[in-house]
């Protein structure tokens, strides 16, 4: 399944027992709700773990970070199934600058 809203696209696919959500583009005030809705749907499914792949995200703002924190909190409260790959330099840099590295279930 693929969805696109403005500068963000989300692709969801199964990889074995895991569900991979690939985001590419800009994760900001306008697009963060779409990611949250997608992740909430993924949490309601049977997949474990859920991998959020942000390697294609070229920009993230405070609302994008807030969405990641909300997803991490939801995952922590419901079985801790989320893993986040923040391989893109802009996302990694923003997470490091804001000190959120310890608050997110990062894969690398």
Give a quick rundown of the structure.
The chain is built from three helices and five strands, in the order E-E-E-H-E-H-E-H. It has a five-stranded mixed sheet.
Features:
108 residues; alpha/beta; Transcription Regulator spoIIAA; 3 helices; 5 strands
- How many helices? The count is 3
Strand content: 25-35%
Supply the number of structural domains: 1
User: What value does the Rg take, in angstroms?
Assistant: 12 Å
What is the β-strand count?
5
Distance between the termini: 26 Å
CATH class: Alpha Beta
Major sheet: arrangement of strands: 1-2-3-4-5
Globular, elongated, flat, extended or rod-shaped: what is the shape? globular
CATH topology assignment? Transcription Regulator spoIIAA
Overall description:
The chain is an alpha/beta fold and 108 residues long. It has one domain: 2-Layer Sandwich (Transcription Regulator spoIIAA), CATH 3.30.750.24. The protein is built from three helices and five strands. The chain has a five-stranded mixed sheet with strand order 1-2-3-4-5. Helix 1 packs parallel to helix 2. It is globular, with a radius of gyration of 12 Å. It starts with a strand and ends in a 10-residue tail after the last helix.
Which helices and strands, and how do they pair?
Layout: E1 2-5, E2 8-15, E3 18-27, H1 32-44, E4 50-60, H2 62-77, E5 82-85, H3 89-98
